[in-house]
Amino acid sequence: MGKYLVRRILQLVVVAFVISVLTFMLVHLLPGDPTVAILGPNDTAANRAILLKQLGLNYPLWRQYLTWMGAIFQGNLGASYLNHESVTHILATGAPVDFELILISQLIAFVVAVPLALVTSRKPNKPLDNVATTTTFGLLALPPFVVAPILVAVFAVGLGWFPATGYTPFTQSPAQNIHEMILPSVAITAGSIAVYYRLLRSDLISTLQQDFITMARSKGLSSRRIMWRHAFRPSSFSLLAAAGINIGALIAGTFVVELLFVLPGIGYALVQAVEQRDYLVVQGIALVVAVAYVFVQFIIDFIFTIVDPRVVRE
Amino acid sequence: MIGKRRAGRALEFKDVGSHDGPLLVVDDLHTAFRTPRGTVRAVDGVSFEVYEGKTLGIVGESGSGKTVLSRSIMGLLPPRDVLRSGTVHFGGHELSAMSETELRSVWGAELSMIFQDPMTALNPVKRIGVQIAESLVLHLDMDKREAQSTAVELLRSVGIPSPEERVRWYPFQLSGGMRQRVMIAIALACAPRLVMADEPTTGLDVTVQAQILDLLADLQRERHMAVILVTHDLGVVATRADDIIVMYAGRIVERAPTRTLFSDTRMPYTRALMDSIPRLADPSGSRLDAIAGRPPDLIHPPTGCRFAPRCHFAQDKCRESEPPLRTVGSPDHLFACWFPLVDGVSTVPAVKVTLGQTDTAVTDTAVTDAPAPDDQSEAETTP
Question: What is the pTM of this model?
Fold first, then answer.
């Protein structure tokens, strides 16, 4: 167990290093002179030279990289060229929004998908299963930018149960915060429900054919116990792997709902920065998002060691 | 041994069940599966009984219906697409009339099963101790700690070294023989009165096979359990069963006390099974007498005796009408054959078994759906 995790952590470090190099190169690979982007095309060559020095861009690349990394380890990801807001500050205000969005949406996805799959997989191709499978197929085809306006029209404008837009920090008013976060979370949960349900259902159906399930029945265990205690865990491997990829994708993929519901998340900040060619902000956010993605994979790997004991020892 | 019995249904069952007569009575059991091709009659009118503490061997080729029979007796087959008729009485109760909920109080407690493949019949992600303790908690009302220490004792009793440590192991950490021992421990955990062992040693090395069968026999004696030993290998049951049933194409073709079956074989199929056991006394290089052809299609079984298409001694009568299960002389020796062997020798002349189209050419009666021969030269084995 310990050995396995150490190996995974080492991999994590290597991947993080590669990501940091790639994001660092981002600024340098972009066409054109960053000073032109910052100062505009009409500034003098002298001013450009001063700026180059200020930004440290006159040093060799490896040195620039080390300086950048050194600053990062001190918690300094640089600041926006445009409004001088520090990237750390952007992340500190934006990250909790995304974290909450993802957390709530994934909770909903699991709470819906897991029991549904446990019920329908026992009687595949019966009415309930057909309805669930068709519905989730539909959900899969609905992107958040379609789901979100429908949700707003029905639950915010029509029924008035939830606000259509707005954001209150959790620390300020937890109840209001959650109230506001529900619709955006539901908007991005649809795809997750569909993927999780379908993966778990098909794995459960094949697990239920296994001898050890008949064995469990022959012990006199109840169906509910067999489903939860014997069938669920060995059927959850693809679900878990998919959850890792899905959550990773959501970290950077929440910007559509952030935009639609006017939430001050990272995705929104990232899109703004890209639009305004605010390279340092893009670089900083990209690095943090990528590292977060790797970290999620690590957590998933860790859960794997608990769910499937064979992973560690093989 | 394991002490207290759970109050409630299991206890009631045990009390009412202590009656005279056989422990298990199977009467005219039919089990069929609906498939897109038609109805597969896997078990077709099987009757027998098993007495307390005795061992019954059920022998047959793959596809003879023996596994379906054992699951059908327990009621373990999924209800969908399965047609079952006939009755099964266990300890005086009609198992075949019980709901799944009622059966659950019998399964694992009074009647348990040892599965064929220890590689797939244990849950790969649960510790073996937990898998044993589960039924103890369920049927014997033990608390977790008590169940865990009983699990250690059970592992010890099935010959697993350092059980205190192994109880926390996962199946993948154990060898096949060890896993089969664990499975026996699970099956015997609640001291059942009848254990169904479905090919318990098929997946194991020959040396381990004997160990497992001896272990099962020892535990059976100790605990006075009845055992139904289902196997394709007559050699496995020869020294271990009190009675043997030979199955062919979903039916019983011969049934006798073990000694009688071997000394006074009546059914040519049983004879053929015996001849297909390799013998050490045979000179090396001698060919085994394999039974030509395959068991018939159970969707359209042949008319007449189902073994006739593969039988060296089949006559026209055999192909026309099905022989009933009958006795001659000793009442506990039953067989289904029109021309039974006498002292191991046929009373009719042997003919070459020719399968397929040639069969209809030789005889007037068409044999419907006789299996096509895989290899004509092999099919023409002379007796």
Answer: 0.80
Q: Which CATH number covers residue B91? A: 3.40.50.300
Of B113, B123, B139, B103, nearest in space to B8 by CA: B139
Share of chain B above pLDDT 90, in %: 55
| pLDDT reported for residue B6 | 41
Is residue A220 one of the residues assigned to a domain? yes
Residues of chain A with Cβ-Cβ distance to B134 below 8 Å are 219, 221
Q: How far apart are CA A270 and CA A275, in angstroms?
A: 9
Q: Decide if A208 is inside a domain.
A: yes
Residue B336 has a pLDDT of 93
Q: Convert the pLDDT of each residue in B174-223 to its tens digit.
A: 998 899 999 999 999 999 999 999 988 887 888 888 888 999 999 999 98
CB contact A206 to B (< 8 Å): no
Per-residue confidence (pLDDT) for residue A306, from 0 to 100: 86
Q: How far is it, in rounded angstroms, from Cα A117 to Cα A120?
A: 5
Residues in chain B closer than 8 A to A303 (CB atoms): none
> Smallest Cβ distance to B108: which of A220, A308, A310?
A220
Structure tokens at A188: 């991005």
Chain A residues touching B71 at Cβ < 8 A = 214
How far apart are the C-alpha atoms of B124 and B119, rounded to whole Å?
9
Domain that holds residue B322: 277-383
Best A207, A208, A210, A212 member to test B by mutation, with max B CBs in 10 Å, is A212
- For residue A313, the chain B residues in CB contact (below 8 A) are 172-173
CA distance B324 to B321: 9
Query: N- to C-terminal Cα distance for chain B?
Result: 52
Contact assignment for B121 to A221 by CB distance below 8 Å: no
B267 near B337, Cβ under 8 Å?
Answer: yes
The closest alpha carbon to B354, from B332, B337, B377, B333, belongs to: B377
Amino acid at B333: H
CA atoms within 13 A on the CB side of B56: 24
Same domain? B69 vs B171:
yes
pLDDT at B270: 92
Q: How high is the mean pLDDT of chain A?
A: 86
A218 with B76: Cβ contact below 8 A: yes
Nearest residue, CB atoms, B134 vs list A214, A219, A234: A219
* First-to-last C-alpha distance (Å) of chain A: 11
Task: Note whether B76 contacts A217, CB cutoff 8 Å.
Answer: yes
Strand partners, B197: B114, B229
Q: Which amino acid is at B329?
A: G
Instruction: Tell me the residues of chain A between 16 and 55 that have a Cβ less than 8 Å away from chain B.
Output: none
pLDDT at B166 exceeding the cut of 90: yes
Residues 146-175 of B with CB under 8 A from A: 170, 172-173
On whether residue A78 sits in a domain, the answer given is no
Helix (H, G, I), strand (E, B) or coil at B145: helix
Residues A216 and A115 in one domain: yes
Cβ-based neighbours of A48, under 8 Å, separated by 6 or more = A33, A35, A36, A39
Domain membership of residue A66 as a residue range: 2-73
- Residue type (1 letter), B283: P
For residue B356, being part of any structural domain is answered with: yes
Inter-residue contact B64 to B295 (CB < 8 Å): yes
On whether both B86 and B204 belong to a single domain, the answer is: yes
Interface pTM (ipTM) of the complex?
0.80
